[in-house]
Each structure stands twice: as structure tokens, then as C-alpha cells.
Amino acid sequence: MIKHFKVPTVLSSISTVVLVSGMALASVSVPKQHWSFSGMFGTYDRAAAQRGFQVYQEVCSSCHSLRLVNYRHLAALGFSMEQIKAISGEAEVADGPNDEGEMFTRPAKPADKFVSPFANNNAARTSNNGAFPPDLSLMTKARPGGPDYLYAILTGYAEAPDGVTVPEGMNYHSYFPGHQIAMAAPLDDDAVEYQDGTKATLVQMTTDIVTFLSWAAEPEMEERKSMGIKVLLFLIVFSGLLFAVKKKVWADLH
Predict the structure, then answer these.
(1) Where are the alpha helices (DSSP H) in 5-80?
(2) What is the pLDDT of residues 216-233, one digit of tens each?
(3) Is 173 helix (H, G, I), strand (E, B) or coil?
(4) Do 82 and 241 form a contact (C-beta atoms < 8 A)?
(5) Most buried of 24, 50, 121, 134 (most Cβ within 10 A)?
């Protein structure tokens, strides 16, 4: 027997779930961190972002996609075109059809978007015990607290307090809503060997990957801030000129 649900009831249930989830995320208090890109004059630390990209490639990319970023965008972080071609060439993308009408795979090009680790969402869930690893393209903008939240997620794993039972397949977390998270701690000291010789501590890697993902989410930030400063300077000068004109025009009436 097919059950018919009233649309308002279903929509109400969905709205309730979304609202509760949003309230849970919003209620999480995470420590504030200092970021090079914070504030009106903040800019991305290119060295940190490049190291963060290495962390993403070697640790995060096996589960998390970055589907809104093209390989060629890495040029903004200081990567040469030769480096970008080498990076993109390590991945394969589906293409076609060819002259015979068949699909084929080829090495990715700089113009391609980052290749996702899974063919589809169901494959991603199957490989992660039912948990879906979210895309990281906009992660620092999609969560309350932004970079601070992501930093807390990567560094907040801890032993469960006495009396707290963590179900199988879950991990205790100091900041995640409910204090239980399906993702195991992805980073630990020396998880990668930095190409520039920087010591790969947990704090260092977390700072670097958050810097990289912040850039990925908002690559136009520096240009936007630069334009904002120019507009403010223009308005200050323009206001001064208007005041001088006003004084000149009304001088005879005083």
C-alpha cells in the first residue's frame, strides 16, 4: 500500500532538520586563530598556501573533492605552468566521444577542474562507511566560523572523557556538534614531508591547509580588498574636495 504524505508536513519536517542542524553548527564555539588573510589589509601567505596544497594532494584528495577549482588557478599561488601541467597530468578525466563514438580517459589538463576521487556520491559513501566526504571548494565559507571552524575540526580530536561512550566507527571530537565525528583524524605530526623543508607539525599542516582552502573558496579576496581600499581613499579625497567647494561657495555669506 502506497502511503501519501501531505506536502506541508514533509516540508515542515525538512525545515526542522535543516534548522536544527544549522543551530547545532552555529552553537559550536571554536578558538579564534590569527590568519594572514584576516582584516582589511590581509593577504594570502603564498608559501603556506602552497604547502597547504601539498597537504591536500597527499592527504585530503583521496576522499575530498575540490570540484570548483581548476588546475590552472594554482598559478595565482606561484606555481609555474610546467608545475601545473605536471600536477594535472597525474590525474585522469573522462572525455569523448572520439571519432568512433566511444568515451575515453586522458590525462587532465590545466584547464580541467580538479578530478574528484570518486565517480559519484554513492561510491564516496560506500568507500567511507556510509559517511559522505564533503567537497572542500567552499568549506571555509560554508561553516560558521569559517577558517577557525576548519582549524578546530582538524585539531580537535581527543580521547573521550570518562563516562562518554563513542559508537563504533565514530571518533570523539572536542568541537564537532555532538562531539562525535565519523572522519578519523586526518593529520598527525609528520604526515607529509614538506618540499620546502618546513617542519610538518599538526599545527603547521593545519594552518597551511586552511590557508589553501580559504584561497580556494575566495581567490578574488585580495583583489576585492584592494578595490575596497581604493574606493575608500577616493571617497575621502572626494569628501575633502566637496567640503572645500562648500566653503568657497558659501564664504561670502559668513
Answers:
(1) 7-26, 46-55
(2) 999 999 999 999 999 999
(3) strand
(4) no
(5) 50
